[in-house]
Amino acid sequence: MKERIIDVAQALVQSRGFNAFSYRDLADRILIRTASIHYYFPKKDDLARALIERYRSDFEGAIQDIDCTARSPQDRLSAYLKMFLELSKGGSRLCLFAVFSAELPSLSETVQEEIKIFYEKNIQWIGDVIDDGRRAGLFSFPGGSRDVASAIFSFLEGEMLVQRVFPSKEPFPEVPDAIRILLSWGP
């Protein structure tokens, strides 16, 4: 039941926002009483932490899979971009952390810190990959890799929001032109 609650809560967060649903909304969708939700998650902050923990664990597992299967920096970055952009399902869902970031002032300090950790890990990973690519002569960009990695991550998070406003019938390119230009990455 706990996993079911987290599943439904995640779908609600990614489609509506964390503050846009109540335990009553969850209970109605799962066909249980709100007391059952409170049994597993006494406060909504407890639910937020459980959502973040699972999402971050799944995301980190996906990144480890990329590192194990994709060899070149280009292949690793392509796999990451594809995974990240498919997550949004054409704008119908947002990255869980993007939603939490938008609602940051209303969240506990613990949840805010978890969001920062998630962002830092992603930016660090992207930075390591593009550094590998620069050393191999595959990518070329001015400045430090951290700034470029932060720009790439910001682009991905922002692109989800743009896709929500302007849903596209066309599949999103595996490597968006903006990232190709940023890294001087050939076709």
Structure notes:
With 187 residues, this protein is mostly helical. It has one domain (51-183): Tetracycline Repressor, domain 2, CATH 1.10.357.10. Helices cover 71% and strands 0% of the residues. It is built from 9 helices and no strands. Helix 1 crosses helix 2, helix 2 crosses helix 3 (34-40) and helix 5 (73-87) runs antiparallel to helix 7 (109-135). It is elongated, with a radius of gyration of 18 Å.
What's this, in brief?
This protein has 187 residues and is mainly alpha-helical.
| CATH architecture descriptor text | Orthogonal Bundle
CATH topology: the name is: Tetracycline Repressor, domain 2
Q: Quickly give the structural class.
A: mainly alpha
Q: What is the H-and-E element order?
A: HHHHHHHHH
Mind describing the biggest β-sheet?
Answer: none
Gyration radius, to the nearest Å? 18 Å
Helix content: over 70%
Intertermini distance: 47 Å
What is the overall number of helices?
Answer: 9
- Mean of pLDDT: 89
Q: List unreliable stretches of 5+ residues.
A: none
Strand proportion: under 5%
The CATH C-level name is Mainly Alpha
Number of beta-strand segments? 0
Shape: elongated
CATH superfamily caption: Tetracycline Repressor, domain 2
**Tally of individual domains:** 1
